[in-house]
Amino acid sequence: MNQTDVLIAGAGPTGLTLACDLARRGVSARVIDKSPTDFPGSRAKGLMPRTLEVFDDLGVVGEVLASSGPFPPFRGYAGETVLWDRTIYQMAGFPELTPTPDLPYTTFRMIPQWRTEEILRARLVALGGRVERGTELTALNQDGEGVTASLVRDGRVEEVRCRYLVGADGGPSFVRKAIGIGFAGTTDATDRSIIADVIASGPDRDHWHTWTNPGNPANRVSLCPLPGTDFFQFVAPVTTDDVPALTLESLQAIFDQRSGVSGVRLSDLRWATMYRVNVRLADRFRMGRVFLAGDAAHVHSPAGGQGLNTGVQDAYNLGWKLGAVLRGAPETLLDSYEAERLPVAAHVLGMTSALHKRWANGGTPRSAADDVYQLRLSYQGGPLARDNGGGRVRAGDRAPDAPCRDAAGNLVRLFDAFRGPHFTLLAFERHDGRYGEPVRAYTVLHPGEPIGGPCLVDADGLVRSGYGVESGFVLVRPDGYIGLIAPDEAAVREYLALVMGGPAM
């Protein structure tokens, strides 16, 4: 029987993010997907600032930025007449972020989902992994030592033994059903939209074109240019009981009828789907040695563009914990995945549902910027947050970025120190530096202080002001969240012993 540490079912953005994170930790993992081909559609095309930070850490943000673009301004029409132009921020009802030293990424980025997946797959290959296409998980059984999974490929059955199994296999998740986890919520069969990728002759590629009927907001159609391609994403709500065919001819007829424009021709249909709004949340995110992540654990309205982004955060939270436990950390560390991520997913479901209702009725949403950007997401009060001090930020919060200088005087950022599969200790006073392999410790110095050992010089005072501390210690988790704020080294060692196992040093 073949063996692996982790089996990941599903090679979408969630599964690929997890696979990349595990691969860079040296974890043996297999990624399977029952689809014989890579996903071809634009579907989830918006990346939030926090997701860009994750992709920075995983080593793919450069390619993502090069392949993406800012969200184009919306342009509203009545037939051929331009009625208005609005930015994505005006449409969404919240302000654009102002760049600050603690935020390296402040804008939404638009990139077709197929391209995001392509970039992540290439990164996985570079790390020594690959996706096994056309491979379906058909059965699983777990015991106290691991999971036995049955995989089918080309009619042949393979039995695989893994320490842990992660279901990142989407809303219909076989994994979730196989382990009997409920998926409470609603499916609104009347709230449907056609989403498709087409080439459109006529519209410029500088705007997100939308034709609306003020008396009937649902009777609308839009064409959004997809960066790095010749395609537009076509979106049209389905307003009748009759289900239109997902053909080029049908899309053209819908466009002509709703837009009142005769000079736009659609061609080269690449991908099309009928999207139904589901709002559902798994009862649990873990059952023994089996975990759920991404759409397998939560599905919700597309309003606010949270689906792909929330799944990436699930994977980023789970990856370091699986890696740590496989290297000897206590099994109880894995309990924190559900404790931290399920409340976040529940909040996202409520937020996106409220946004969707207001947008569907033609209203302007109230500000939800902190939620949508995912930068203020916090695990305060969670099982891994220990706060014995703290000022501007608290344990459980995202660790802010800040410019500083290394021992050689080079301009660097805190995120450069955080990047990689380790804990990062920011010591705002002298320390002995002995914390074990998973920790990289840096003394944060004032300008002019003697250089000695790994250090970061807080040349402009932005590290101290960003964290609101002048002394003590801040321990940053591998996923970029603050685990501990403490006044002394003993608390650091106690925390690491609790989370990673072994005696306090």
TrEMBL record:
Which SUPFAM superfamilies does the record match to this protein? FAD/NAD(P)-binding domain (SSF51905), Thioredoxin-like (SSF52833)
Q: Which InterPro entries match?
A: FAD-bd, FAD/NAD-bd_sf, RIFMO-like, Thioredoxin-like_sf
Residue span, FAD-binding domain: 3-349
Keyword Zinc-finger in record: no
Q: Name one GO molecular function term.
A: FAD binding
Against Pfam families, the record matches this protein to: FAD_binding_3 (PF01494)
What are the record keywords, sorted?
FAD, Flavoprotein, Monooxygenase, Oxidoreductase
Q: Does the keyword DNA-binding apply?
A: no
Cofactor field: FAD
Q: Which PANTHER family does this chain map to?
A: BINDING MONOOXYGENASE, PUTATIVE (JCVI)-RELATED (PTHR43004:SF19), TRK SYSTEM POTASSIUM UPTAKE PROTEIN (PTHR43004)
Family, per entry: Belongs to the PheA/TfdB FAD monooxygenase family.
What name has this protein been given in UniProt?
Putative monooxygenase
Task: Write down the species.
Answer: Fimbriiglobus ruber
